[in-house]
Structure formats: C-alpha cells, structure tokens
Design brief:
Number of strands: 10
Radius of gyration: 20 Å
CATH topology of the largest domain: Nucleotidyltransferase, domain 5
Shape: globular
Order of helices and strands: EEEHHEHEHEEEHHHHEHEH
Structural class: alpha/beta
Strand content: 15-25%
Largest sheet: 5 strands, mixed
Distance between the termini: 22 Å
Length: 334
C-alpha cells in the first residue's frame, strides 16, 4: 500500500511516500532560519510558509519516489496536536488531494507517528513495548499495547522537557532551536556551582520541569544582578544532566514496575546526545532492549506519519471532508 503522507504541525513542511514501513521518499522544507530572528516559532509565519511550500514539497516527494499521483493508494496527514494554523494547512491540502484522487484519507496523531519513527529502521520492533515520548510540547511514558492502542502511565504536569530546554537556552542567549544548540555547546555539569532541584510529582511516573526551568532562569537573573558572568556551556551541561536524570530514572522505574524489557524513545528530544548515550548504558546494565530513531527521524518528518498511517488504515481508521485540526489531543483519542 503506497501512502502519501503530510506533516505540518510546527515549522517543518514535510511530505513522504511510504509503503508499509518502507520509506520511498522523504522531503522536508524547514523554516528554522526565518524563525531564528524571533527566537522561536511564530505561528502566523509558520502557517504562511506551509501554504507556500506544501504543493512544491509534495511534488518533490513524488518525484524522488519515482511515482505519480495515480500511484498513490491513500493520503495521510497529521491532524493533531500542534500549531492550529500550521496543522490546518496540511489537513486542508490533504483533504483536497484525497478528494481529487478519490483515495482514502487517514488522520494521524503526531505523537503516534513519532513512536512509529522507530519502526522505519527497526524491522523486528513491534508492540507491546514501553515508550518515552519526549519533545518540546510533550513528555509522556506510554504503554504501546498495539500499533493503535496506547495507555499513558506518566505525563508532564506542567512544562515538557523540550520546552524547558528551549526556554532556558533562549534565556542564556542561544539561538533557535534552543534545545539543539544547548546540547551542542554543553560541556561538563557542575552542581556545586549551579545547584538545580529535582522536581517531585504525586504520580511517580509523571514529569515536572517548570520548577527546574524557573531555577535556571533565577540563576541567570541573580548572576546578572550581581554583575557576574554565567558559564553558559557548564550551565547547559548541568541542566541537560538533570533533565536526563529525571527522564531516565522514571522510564527505567516504569519498565521495572510494569514488566517491560523493550524500551523505545521517540520525539524531538530523543536526538539529545546525553539522553541517547546514558539511556543506552543504563539499559545495557539492566539487560533492557533499547530502540530510538536515527537522527533524521527524531524531528518532525512525514515518513513517520506514513508508517503510522499504514497501521491506522489496517485498524479501519478513515476520515472524510469533515476532518478538523486540533491544537491539543490525547494520544489515546481517535
């Protein structure tokens, strides 16, 4: 089954052509350079750029796959969650395309597709498994019971890990994308110099990064008031280490208590170098099997949308012209 998949939930206009787990083409038009000017994504600009790029990117994806519109069996699109204006560009384009081709339209949840990014290069990976989904807007621990059956056992009570990285990076003067640049310049942590708290939550598997973010911002402000210089690479490393401590400890605890020996990591923060390295080391110690996407599939892309769409289609999921976009949507909701 050949699926043309569309992703436009934030600042990446992405289109891919997939067949099952096989990626025939994957094209991404990024807006990073434009949003750097503002220190983050400007939703209205993102929406306009999606509208300008989507038709061109779609044609490029078809060309790279060596196919035409007549070869497509279905159209898939990210419909939630994300920036509502950006999502609507992709959803409306996909609806028009599916209608004109008289092909099925498959709506795909953004976080489900991030999990599916792991299927692309890991042929043997299949549910059930435990997954840590960590990004700029979401931090959850989820039981993946089947390809379209999800159960959340832990989630953020305030800020997500990626949001904490991004906002702290911006406060330290790093350019957008903050989390990526924070990871690049981080050296060695120093908790004596920059003591950071470990947030606590009522549910042992939940996350809370708001207090950690506030502690970093207060450290920066206090140093500024005293005329002191912040050692940015060291503070970056200290924050990164603390966030990874929290993510890794809770994920391993969840795996132990819920009886999983396969752990999967998904979402934009799965590209974080320390998280990948340390989680791999810890999983090897505990004899857990660890999976995470290659770097090109960690961020937003349409290949993962197409792969998840294949399983959604097999489960009977379809949409019609009434399909809408949603800024927020639980991963468990259809």
């Amino acid at each position: 089954m050949v699926i043309l998949a569309i992703e436009s939930s934030c600042d990446e206009t992405a289109v891919a052509v997939t067949r099952g787990r096989e990626v025939l083409s994957s094209v991404i038009a990024t807006q990073i350079e434009e949003h750097k000017i503002y220190g983050g994504v400007v939703p209205e600009i993102a929406s306009r750029r999606h509208a300008e790029a989507i038709a061109v990117v779609t044609q490029q994806a078809l060309n790279e796959a060596g196919l035409t519109y007549s070869d497509i069996d279905a159209v898939a699109v990210t419909y939630a969650p994300g920036l509502i204006g950006a999502l609507l560009v992709g959803v409306n384009f996909a609806k028009g395309l599916a209608m004109s081709l008289d092909k099925p339209l498959i709506p795909v949840h953004h976080l489900r597709s991030h999990i599916a990014a792991n299927y692309i290069e890991n042929e043997g990976l299949k549910p059930p498994f435990l997954c840590l989904v960590v990004s700029g807007g979401n931090s959850i621990i989820v039981k993946v019971n089947d390809y379209t059956d999800f159960e959340i056992i832990g989630e953020t009570t305030d800020d997500a890990a990626g949001e904490c990285f991004d906002k702290c990076a911006r406060a330290m003067g790093l350019s957008y994308p903050g989390g990526v640049n924070l990871d690049k310049i981080a050296t060695e942590p120093d908790f004596k110099r920059y003591p950071l708290p470990t947030p606590h939550t009522a549910n042992e598997f939940d996350f809370s990064f708001s207090g950690l973010k506030t502690a970093v911002l207060n450290t920066i402000n206090n140093a500024s008031q005293k005329g002191e210089e912040i050692d940015v690479p060291v503070l970056c490393a200290t924050l990164r280490h603390k966030v990874c401590d929290i993510l890794i400890d809770k994920t391993l605890l969840a795996a132990k208590k819920h009886g999983y020996n396969q752990i999967v990591v998904a979402g934009g923060v799965s590209a974080n170098s320390e998280l990948r390295k340390r989680l791999k080391e810890e999983c090897e110690k505990e004899n857990y099997e660890l999976f995470y996407p290659s770097l090109k599939y960690c961020g937003d892309n349409a290949a993962m949308v197409g792969v998840q769409a294949f399983y959604e289609f097999e489960a009977g999921k379809r949409a019609d012209a009434a399909l809408n976009a949603y800024a927020t949507r639980d991963i468990r909701e259809d």
